[in-house]
Amino acid sequence: MQNFFVKSHGLGNDYIVLDHDNLDINITPEKVRLICDYHYGIGSDGILMKRDTPYAEFGLRIFNPDGSEAEKSGNGLRIFAKYLYDYKFAHKKSFTIHTLGGVVTAHIIEEKNGRATQVKVDMGKAIFKSSDIPVNFSKEECFGETLTIKDKAFNIHCVSVGNPHCVILVDSLNEAITKEYGPLIETHSMFPNRINVQFAKVLSRKEVEISIWERGAGYTLASGSSSSAVACAMYKKGLVDGDVTIKMPGGNLHIEIDPAWNIKMTGEVREIASGSLSPELFG
Asked: Using one digit for the tens of pLDDT, what is the confidence trace for 138-157?
């Protein structure tokens, strides 16, 4: 079916999967914004584009709903891995995927009737070096530093897990604060590529609750890369163990971190719908 799409979600974070080889349209930022629009398009938190690559078994481009391109997405990777497995592109339960944020390995760890339900992704390594995140900052690491926005001072911890994150430790979570200050932090001049923002409350050495403002997408129910970033930041601070559950409004993800900062993330994925993009969509 030409222009075939699949829409799936990971804990309420939904993506549309398209195959570059099966499209007769050129995907532009304007088309991405239209497809992701919940009124004029299908509606989603982004688009996952299957593509050829010489660097891994499968290639992936990740588009935010504002039309910009992301280096990596944890939920997106799990959704994409499910698509590859369910639709018989992948013929084994472990395979590699190339993203702008590097090559990762996906593992189908649970399935039902031949369709993936739980996926584990090797998310790569956490990076704390300011210039590699990137963060415009004089010190080698921007970790435990103060950022003042309007009337508030935030204690920030910056990390990359293939894409940039700013983790803020708080005593209590407030959705209104996330929505008010998230976009201001995302676009602050400290962050030349903009940044994902997480407010994190540590519940125990095994659990952290977070609220997310996602770069290019806004307030988000769940995020795999955000969960990975928060887990690594809290692990570096000594507040959690290397095996931690991240709790979000959309659900929970399990994150494992080894002493070399390699990250593994596990969570469920579900397909919502499939179909074909109508030629009238872009008419």
From this structure: 999 999 999 999 989 999 99
CB contact at 8 A, 215 and 181: no
DSSP per residue, 262-283? EEEEEEE-EEEEEEE--GGGG-
CA atoms within 13 A on the CB side of 281: 21
Whose tokens are 């398009």? That residue is 41
- Tokens 């790569």 label which residue? 124
- Give the whole-angstrom CA distance, residue 237 versus residue 242: 12
Write down the pTM of the prediction: 0.91
Phi, psi of 282 (to 5 degrees): -100, 5
Question: CA dihedral defined by 110, 114, 115, 117, rounded to 10 degrees?
Answer: -20
Q: What angle do CA 63, 68, 73 make, to 5 degrees?
A: 45
